[in-house]
Amino acid sequence: VCAVALFLLVLVRFDFYPFGPFSAALAEFGQHFVAPRRGDGAASFDQLSQTVGLVLGVLGLPHVMIRFLTVPDAQQARTSAYTSLWIFFGFYLMIPVLGYGAAILVGPGAIAAENKGGNLAVAQLAETLGGGIL
């Protein structure tokens, strides 16, 4: 719920244009900021394996597995799996909007000041847009 609220708050800032944060980041920070990182073979493989792990690995998470183990029959297990996949699909579509929104609304300098790896960017975005509530 918080991610959806944050996603909507970012979209409000960009007139409900989902590519607005990307376009703004491209205009403000340049092509190198928004382009996929290119590297040697190992770096490219690392990025690919991380993406595959994120997309396929979520079905093995305990809170997802419990959905499969607590249903009375196979039909409901399939329905539960489809529901989970759609939720994950929607969440993964929100990630770029939240990431580029954080870059524009919070700023790379403020994000790096809190954590060099940028791991708190979405939390900082939530604080910027929704204060302590989010």
Strand content: under 5%
Alpha-beta classification: mainly alpha
Output the radius of gyration: 18 Å
Number of helices: 8
Shape: globular
- Average predicted local confidence, pLDDT: 84
Distance between the termini: 10 Å
Please give the largest β-sheet. Answer: none
How would you characterize this protein structure?
Helix 1 crosses helix 6 (74-105) and helix 2 packs parallel to helix 6. The chain is built from 8 helices and no strands. The protein is mainly alpha-helical.
Topology:
Layout: H1 2-13, H2 20-29, H3 31-34, H4 41-57, H5 62-69, H6 74-105, H7 108-114, H8 121-130
Helix pairs in contact: 1-6, 2-6, 5-6, 6-8
In short:
Helix content is 75%, strand content 0%. It has 134 residues and is mostly helical. The model has no long low-confidence stretch (mean pLDDT 84).
Structural key phrases:
8 helices; mainly alpha; 134 residues
